[in-house]
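tool=predict chain=A
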Amino acid sequence: MLKQVLRALLPPALPALILSCVFILPRHEALVESSISPDLPLDFDLPGWQGKKIQESEVERATLAADTRFSKAEYTQGRRVFWEKEKPPVEVSIVYSGNDMNASIHRPERCLPAQGHIDLRTGSDEITLADGRTVAFTRLTSRVPLPNRKDKLTLRFVSYYVFIGHGTIRHTHIGRTLQDMYDRVAGGYVQRWAYLQVSSYWAPELGVTEEETDRRVRALISELLPRQVKWEEM
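tool=predict ok
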């Protein structure tokens, strides 16, 4: 008799129990900001680097939602001797999600082909920052042919990217997605994620190697992140 009663009550009771959890889960209506500052250092504010603000491209703007915010700058290092060739700049791009995360932040593997990048290859690597912290990044390489040039030059890019939320850093798209789901359910808040990418290019014709470019990109990340991220929120 008891088993029959339980069998009859369990199907409607289980959904009701699950739905009732909505009332006991934490709720937070406000959008919680990312823990990385948009104020990138300019001029000689970053030791050893000279920075200048740059504008996002029309392609970047058209690809993402209208309320997406950008903060971009490029950095160069002075020549140690006057006959040394000037190295390509290192570009830093911070993209802040709008109200619709899926329309504001994509994996670069999805966005970069629209900007002419081909042969994208990804991997993971860790970078030790100037303050001793270690942060995991996704490392991405790609090529951009320049067919309009007579020499048909192809630029080869080295990029490192990471997603920074409120008190959280994730270096993969799936990691960011799972963290966001957890924070919405368990923490009761919606956070604004920022996508940080640091990249530069090289080519044999420019007298620059991939190893040298990789070192310069990592060196800028090492100096930049300790001052840009609000580590007290981590």
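Residues 28-233 form one domain. The radius of gyration is 23 Å.
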